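User: Teach me something about this protein's shape.
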Amino acid sequence: MITRVLATGTADVLIVDDDSPDGTGALADQMAQANPAINVVHRSEIRLRRGLPA
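Assistant: First, the predicted structure itself:
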């Protein structure tokens, strides 16, 4: 699905990693390094910046 959205050339993708141990965050980071239209926010970063509860 991400590939299809990026293929339009008119969209950015935001992936929010829930900090689970399934490796999604690392995969999302790899995708973001390869494509500047992909942005990743990690739940642990949100908690540190905004103080949201776990």
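Now, about its shape. The radius of gyration is 12 Å. The chain has a mean pLDDT of 83. If you'd like, I can walk through any region in more detail.
User: That's plenty for now, thanks!
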